[in-house]
Design a protein that fits this description.
By secondary structure, this protein is an all-alpha fold. It contains 7 helices and no strands.
Length: 149
């Protein structure tokens, strides 16, 4: 579904002459195809895989924005921010901290995880269920907090 949406949006951007948006969409499609061909991939990646690729692209661009800002290159930082906006339009809405805590508590209950040694099981379930909707770096801290004795 997401793959088709990207293809359709690429055609629309091409017809409308939106060069910047078109470039970012082509970059996303290229990254998606590269992920399809990775040795660990068993054929084309699904929507969750595509979301993971896009999330990684956003993270890379946020790092670049920080570096460009620190290096006094506002024009390059602005370009990266514009790319982030295009990519994020395809990602699911990120959960608020309250929503994330509720989702984590529900997953802990579902999986029966009650101790920090089973944290990997909880994180795997969260990643499978909420890919692209949650910052898993922060989620890890929340899981640790909820599993404290």
């Amino acid at each position: 579904m997401l793959r088709q949406r990207l293809s359709d949006d690429m055609k629309t951007a091409l017809k409308a002459g939106e060069k910047d948006r078109l470039g970012v969409i082509r970059m996303m499609i290229s990254a998606m195809k590269a992920a399809d061909m990775e040795p660990t991939a068993k054929g084309p990646i699904d929507d969750a895989g595509i979301i993971a690729v896009m999330t990684k692209m956003v993270k890379q661009r946020r790092d670049s924005v920080e570096q460009y800002t620190n290096g006094n290159r506002p024009e390059l930082a602005a370009k990266e921010v514009a790319e982030i906006a295009v990519i994020e339009a395809y990602l699911p809405k990120m959960m608020s901290e309250t929503e994330a805590k509720a989702a984590i508590a529900a997953v802990l209950k579902e999986t029966g995880v009650t101790s920090p040694k089973d944290m990997g099981k909880a994180m795997a379930a969260l990643k499978a269920k909420f890919a692209g909707q949650m910052d898993f770096g922060r989620a890890s801290g929340m899981v640790k907090e909820l599993l404290k004795p």
